[in-house]
Amino acid sequence: MEQDLSALTITKTPNPLTYSASGQTKTYKYTVKNTGNVELNAVKVIDSILGPITLLSTDLAPNAQTTGTASHQTTLTDVTAGSVSNTATVYNGTQQLNQTTAKVTATQPSPNPALTITKTPNPLTYSASGQTITYKYTVKNTGNVEIKGPITVTDDKSGTITIPNSGTLSPGSSVTGTTTYTTTQTDINVGHVTNAAYATGSFNSQPIISPSAIAIVSYEQPTKKEEHNGDRDNYGGPGYGEYGGAVIPMIPGPMASSPMFSNGPNGYGGEPYGPTETLNSDPNAHKAKAHLSKHKHKNHSKNNHKTKHHTTKHHKTDKKNT
């Protein structure tokens, strides 16, 4: 009579087989097979790092198998340790039947030292020689290894400067520095200040040089102050109120023949109040003309009345003498 035999085997396959940094995901596949001659109904797997593993089936007949998966993200500790080793144990109920260990190795990536530089001018324009332009440089380690300092910046206008506190740049970190430039008459003539700068550090005693960054600051001609001559479009000269260029009429006299008032019809309008602004071009001017006509008629009537009265009186005197 064959003796009952409870037996399980387990294999564990990691993917990928290596890692190079923290935060990378490794997936493990577990395969469990019943290699005994009796059915097992409480199969389970526990991983030393990932804990209990979910299997597709926990009931296995002889020669049947099941699988399960789990994932792990590498940590800085894994990177420092150089490898990740974990053990998976398979049970039937509480009875441990087998176990397996998988090892994933950390690999050091190929060194890739790199620097970048950005350059920001302030202000963005200039209008005269002797003005100061300040440049801000930002140097960043965009590689995967440390860059030794000091970090220097070489500018074709300002020369070479050393960025303070730039002893070592770790991957992803950056430092900043500033310099100034004073505009010249040549910059006025050319119309812009264009300069390039690059950063330098070192890795394994070899210089690491960034690509150049170019900044352009443009010349902007100063705005000239406009000269206003009485604001012809909206103003009729001192003392003329809100007539928009129409001139208030004046009683004929010495001023009527002056150049200021002799360029338009009847001695009004014309320059400096605008060549098209005559007495007839404005409602106020019509009122002014009517006023003159009325004044003239009134004086004429008054003079006629005096003349008539004088003639009548003279006639009476002559009749009496006769």
How does this model look, in words?
- This protein has 322 residues and is an alpha+beta fold.
- It has 3 domains: 99 residues, Immunoglobulins (Immunoglobulin-like), CATH 2.60.40; 105 residues, Immunoglobulin-like; 87 residues, no CATH class.
- The chain is 16% helix and 39% strand.
- The protein is built from 3 helices and 18 strands.
- Strands 10, 12, 13, 14, 16, 17 and 18 form a 7-stranded mixed β-sheet that branches. It has a 5-stranded mixed β-sheet with strand order 2-8-7-4-5.
- A hairpin with a 2-residue loop joins strand 16 and strand 17.
- It is rod-shaped.
- The C terminus is likely disordered.
Summary?
The protein is an alpha+beta fold and 322 residues long. 16% of the residues lie in helices and 39% in strands. The strands form four sheets. Strands 10, 12, 13, 14, 16, 17 and 18 form a seven-stranded mixed β-sheet that branches. A five-stranded mixed β-sheet has the order 2-8-7-4-5.
Please give the count of helices: 3
Tell me the CATH architecture of the largest domain.
Sandwich
Pattern of helices and strands? EEEEEEHEEEEEEEEEHEEEH
User: Which CATH class of the largest domain is shown?
Assistant: Mainly Beta
Number of domains: 3
First-last Cα distance? 192 Å
Alpha-beta classification = alpha+beta
Shape: rod-shaped
Strand content: 35-45%
Helix content: 10-25%
**Residue-averaged pLDDT:** 78
CATH superfamily of the largest domain: Immunoglobulins
